[in-house]
Amino acid sequence: MQTLIIASTRPGAGKTAIAAALGALVGRGPRRTLVAKGWAADPAKDADAAALRSLLPDAITLSPEQARGPGAAAAQATNLAARLKLAAGEAAVAIVEGASGDPAPNMALAEATDGLVVLVAGVDDGAQATALMYGRRLLGVVINGVPRYQTHRLDSEIVPALTRAGVSFLGAIPENRRLVAPSLDLVAEHLGAVFALLPEQGQRLIDNFLIGGLVLDWGPAYFGSQENTGVIVRGDRPDVQIAALQTDTTRALVLTKGISPIEYVHYEARERGVPVVVSPYDTHETAARLETLLPKVRFDHPEKLTRMVELASSDLDLRAVERAIAQPATD
To answer: Cα–Cα–Cα angle for 252, 304, 141, nearest 5°?
Structure first.
């Protein structure tokens, strides 16, 4: 069984997303895959480990090791390697979400399993320096979350620098709104808002937010300008709320000032299947609070996995990954 350790230069670089996507891709067909998070402060409550189990129900999963600091890296890696081998069964590959930053735990696990490391980094993370620390254990680097305006820099500076250093470049995942979209449940929790309609739609993802204030354009044209939109609108403006409901792109209404929808808006929203939440704050404060939501957003939704699998399939060198999986372990 080959082991691929998904490491990153920093927390939040996208290890969980890449691990889940590779788990879904290499686990297709009859071949089974073991997917696990390597270490966690609290293995029983770790959100990333729970997300991997939820998103990949057909994969073999394993609970993380208790993280105990850098001095215990070798002992923990040996223990985790033994657990991986015991749990693997007929799995052809184990994909392990490794540690961020410090290469020591990932290197220890790679040595203990005769595995390879995939390093996930952002465009500004200095991937080359970290990649070189992994030496022969490095399969390659993935640059994740590349903004559109940074593609020229990626092609003209970052990739050539990796190539000159002898580091394999496995591809780049472009920045995508769906991957950082919050669920409506998370939006409501963050705002302290309550559902006025369709709370069962709380897992709906909201890719964009629009403010329904002084709209000078024709309402449906303005509200249809973005996909999968949550419209923030004063609770006492049913005219603007109805305009927002005239588009197929409105995924939710966020009514402000603690005012619930009037009966007509309630009826139209229900007919169109658009959930409504009521924020206790005014429109300005509601929008300002949503700007602080991003750190709470996690890669834990099936629609996010679907999008990441699509991006990985088109933008990563999956042949290099498959070749690595096909190589037998040498121990």
So the answer is: 145
| pTM score of the predicted model | 0.91
Give the 3-state secondary structure of residue 140: strand
Instruction: Give the whole-angstrom CA distance, residue 192 versus residue 22.
Output: 36
What is the reported pLDDT for 66? 87
Q: What angle do CA 320, 90, 170 make, to 5 degrees?
A: 15
Domain residue ranges in the chain: 2-179+298-326, 182-296
- Assigned CATH topology for domain 182-296: 3.40.1390
Q: Which CATH number is 2-179+298-326 given?
A: 3.40.50.300
CB-side exposure of 134: number of CA atoms within 13 Å?
Answer: 33
> What does the alpha-carbon distance between residue 55 and residue 62 come to, in Å, rounded to a whole number?
14
d(CA 81, CA 169): 27
d(CA 255, CA 278): 5
Q: What is the pLDDT of residue 68?
A: 79
**DSSP element (H, E) containing 238:** helix 238-244
Q: Are 298 and 113 in contact (CB under 8 A)?
A: no
What are the percentages of helix, strand and coil residues in the chain, rounded to 5? Answer: 45, 25, 30
Diameter of the chain measured on Cα atoms: 70
Which residues does 81 contact at the CB level (< 8 Å), separation at least 6? 3, 109, 112, 113
pLDDT along the chain (331 residues), means of 10: 94 95 84 90 92 93 84 83 87 92 93 96 94 96 96 95 96 96 98 98 96 65 85 94 92 97 96 97 96 95 97 96 78 46
